[in-house]
Write a structure and sequence with these properties.
The complex is a heterodimer of chains A (about 110) and B (about 110). Chain A is mainly β. Chain A has no helices and eleven strands. Chain B is globular, with a radius of gyration of 13 Å. Classes of the chains: A mainly beta (about 110), B mainly beta (about 110).
Chain lengths: ~110, ~110
């Protein structure tokens, strides 16, 4: 069974731009969670989607948004990028909503210049 | 938000030694999990714990759910070079809340 895939793996953007990251969960998994990982703050929860509905949202500004499609694939968007948005963005999938046994993808490394 | 205090921040050990790390919180958690992250990869789930006092093993790894439900421990026995990486604890307060992660313990193994 293929694991969680994330595209692209690396991105370089400039301040003020917007970016869209994509996540394909493990086949059969219907829940997708997104996390931001930085050296200073560690892993911070962004949001969770299940059956195309946002179930939970972390403490991030409205510039961070996401969505989930009917095939469970998910995208997250960051608008008006800031230098502090540079991070590894991780997607994790699980079979059920609010499932704590989450399987992570390799992440997308975003650098904002 | 909730905080998990993970210690130590980093460890340098000789191959073959045993390793112990822990995670504490001021809040009571219903679930504790331990993940390992290798460079350039996402975290991989090692062990999940669901009951206070529970002791669970996965090969050379053993983790315990603290009896107070405010802490958890991970032990690695007879460390080998491939144990190198960052180990994260994570907790879930109640069933419909997101995971909270510790800041990680960076393990280095000297051959």
């Amino acid at each position: 069974k293929a694991g969680v895939t994330q595209t692209p793996r690396y991105l370089i953007k400039t301040r003020g731009q917007q970016v869209t990251l994509s996540c394909s969960p493990i086949s059969g998994h219907r829940s997708v969670s997104w996390y931001q990982q930085t050296p200073g703050q560690g892993l911070q929860f962004l949001f969770e989607y299940f059956s195309e509905t946002q179930r939970n949202k972390g403490n991030f500004p409205g510039r961070f948004s996401g969505r989930q499609f009917s095939n469970s694939r998910s995208e997250m968007n960051v608008s008006t990028l800031e230098l502090g948005d540079s991070a590894l963005y991780l997607c994790a999938s699980s079979y059920r909503d609010f499932d704590n046994e989450q399987f992570f993808g390799p992440g997308t490394r975003l650098t904002v210049l | 938000g909730q905080q998990l205090n993970q210690s130590p921040q980093s460890m340098f050990i000789q191959e073959g030694e045993d390793v112990s790390m822990n995670c504490t919180s001021s809040s009571i958690f219903n679930t504790w999990l331990w993940y390992k992250q290798d460079p350039g990869e996402g975290p991989v789930l090692l062990i999940a714990l669901y009951k206070a006092g529970e002791l669970t093993s996965n090969g050379r790894l053993t983790a315990q759910f603290g009896i107070t439900r405010k802490d958890s421990f991970l032990n690695i026995s007879a460390s080998i070079p491939s144990d190198v990486g960052i180990y994260f604890c994570a907790g879930q307060l109640v069933g419909n809340t997101p995971l909270v992660f510790g800041k990680g313990t960076r393990l280095s193994v000297i051959a």
